[in-house]
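Practice problem: TRAF-interacting protein with FHA domain-containing protein A
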Amino acid sequence: MSSFEEAETEETVTCLHMTFYHPCQEDKMMFRCLNFCKREQVRADEMAKFGRDSSVCRYNLMDTRVSRIQFSLQFYRKLNSSEFCFEIKNMSKKTKLTVDQTELGYLNKIDLPWKCIICFGDYQILAEIQEGESMDYFETYLHLAEVPILQERCLPSLQPIPEKAISSSSFPSQGKSPIEIDENES
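Answer key — structure tokens:
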């Protein structure tokens, strides 16, 4: 047997991609302590904390308006499943955290969707989970956005269109009223 055949199977790692945006980043450099474009390993039993207190938080945001611990992420495996997930918890008593359209108050937590936008104050973070198999650790991969994330992901409105807004000229049977036919008639 060759050494290639004897080598252990390579395990894929769950990676959390996070793209950060703040309108004053260029002036205030609040993301200067984050390692962008470099994957970082985090032990599975460790909680990834984001905030301004560098003695407690692994990911530091240099802004006095950010709480000492703004939010935390916990990596876990769903019960009776091989699926790995992240749970996000708002750790700020003063600032609400929004995950997509779900607003979290202090100590509220939810599962992080596989792709979502996290907002608090003027901060916008696009989070995307890349699935893996490792149970020992996960990775984070941070990116910096040049433009607002909410603006970039403008989705078409899902608002219903009122019937009056539909022009009758767009239908070939204009002017005819609908005819009701009994299913037994031919």
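Discussion: Residues 154-159, 166-173 have pLDDT under 50 and may be disordered. Students who identified this feature from the tokens alone can consider the problem solved.
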